[in-house]
Amino acid sequence: MCGIFGILNLKGQLDVCRFGVPNSTDILRHRGPDDFGSYIDSSVYLGHRRLSIIDLKTGKQPIFNEDGSKCIIFNGEVFNFQEIRKDLETRGHHFSTNSDTETILHSYEEWGNSCVDRFRGMFAFAIWDLVEKKLFIARDRLGIKPLFYALIGDALYFASEMKAILQYSFFPREMDMDALGAYFMLSYIPAPMTISRHIRKLLPGHTLEVKSGKVAINQYWDLKFHPDHTKDENYFIDGFMGLLEEAVKLRLISDVPLGAFLSGGIDSGTIVALMSGLSTEPVRTFNIGFGGNTGGFLDERGFAREVAERYGAIHQEYEVTPDVTGVVTDIVKAFDEPFADSSTIPSYYVSKITRQHVTVALSGLGGDELFGGYERYLGFRLAGAYRRIPWVIREKVVRPLIEALPERRDGHYTVNHLKRFVRSASMQDDLCYLNFVFMVGGEKRERLFADPKVFKDGLEHCEQMMVDYFRAENASDPMDRVFYLDMKTWLPEDILACTDRTSMWHSLEVRVPFLDHKLMEFCATIPNGLKVKGWEKKHLLKKAVSNLLPAGVINHRKQGFDSPMTKWLQTDLKPFVLDVLSNRNLSKHGLFNIETVNTILSEHFNRVEIHDKLIWALVMFQLWFNLYIEGDFPASS
Predict the structure, then answer these.
(1) What is the DSSP string of 436-455?
(2) Is residue 156 part of a domain?
(3) Within-domain flag for 160
(4) For a surface tag, which of 5, 103, 262, 565 has the fewest beta carbons within 10 Å of its beta carbon?
(5) Residue 22 pLDDT > 70, yes or no?
(6) Is 0.70 surpassed by the pTM of this model?
(7) 271 lies in a domain?
């Protein structure tokens, strides 16, 4: 795993003095502390920071082909590179390293832009053709690895993180108000937007090519749902388990020590079980628990220990306390834009302790998206039945009763989820699901901003983008439409972004076997009625792994890899929140209606309604604003 950064002059000669390019990747050192390499000519600069995982001795980048006409910088792993390499060698290609990076370069020589179709892994890479003066950039199918780019004047900038671009004092620090509106709907900024008006995210499954000064972006992969109703459960269980074991085996290829995150849930437990069967050494596992006032937050450490003991793992735990004021600054710096998923806190800590022992960790991330593991999936399915109840009973009897309920004292989401359900379930399918996932909606959305007109277009654009994904032809069944929508938005820009930034901040590579694209394509043929069956989420997955995991791990209430933020905000973190969201701080930019913010805080503190996600979003935005707009991070060159 690495960090890449490049500058291409689209029309003339690269101004080396202006950019100070010999040191341009220093700011990405956390992504690659082991080595540094660069290439520069009259048109382009390519910089690389290396975290050595495969081919420790000869894998230094940039890497050139045999005649020196092409070179590559690469972030990620291509797990099937050995198979591709054998094919290339039979076609006459000669290799000077044992790295997957060189395999990508020779694949490009052989198959051109379509080489990406052959790669099974997580990647963002850039190839420069010195003869044709052509730049080719690609991002993996699911967006496991990030790639940002910007066009300013006659130059194209690209990087693994925005800070590599923002480090230059001449680069404009203008906020994208549409992106900010989307952030306060979703708690993250969906691609291709970023908080910077001048920086975009290359979409997953896309390539970017620059030739003769012209930029072209093309899609090379997308997931299509074709449920096969002619097959039985056993067919899907056998097919899924075979592909998952293969995906895990591929992701055990490493020249450095590796381990696994073990949360106590089904997904990570399954990965550990399969790793144990494929490894001759005990698996090293790492788990996070929480201290402070956690209320009704379930402590899953006991379940993780059960799995670790069953498979003889070398298991380590760490307890996170609600003293996170220093940590959130690191998190803001890791993302370079507002990001409000509170799972960043456990992700930050589990990456930190894991990196003290290994360089690579496998994760169970993706199991919920493949098999319907979230409460909102169950709520969406139940909404269809709820609509059959007469409107008068739903809106005049049930909803007022639910709305009047106080939130639970222990901070659990039960009542809050009921409120969200009765407010949204009567809507048509797409709007119903969007209201399940939107952080703030209705009148409160209008009242949140000091000048709603500034955010109107952005809010409408975000909602329309989500609706378009839901209505895309990639799926026909409403539940499959939900899965597809989440795969295009939530998965790459929330879950995977969180994993990449928090792990790479600590120079840790994380691999995600559930998101192997061949496995995902197979799971897209599984009827969703086998994924969410009746009241049971992840039905088929639970059945598939019933012989691998203890019954308690399979059947306990899902907690998710999150933090007890609801209760922390009401207790341990309350002084911190009141300071960050003080009238003085909010007045610095004047973007929010201060009276509305104070109402939101009061409602949460007094258990009128849970607003933990919105409050945390406000906190993280304010901290980002202090660092990136008021402050000077990242430091100018």
Answers:
(1) HH-SS-HHHHHHHBSSHHHH
(2) yes
(3) yes
(4) 565
(5) no
(6) yes
(7) no
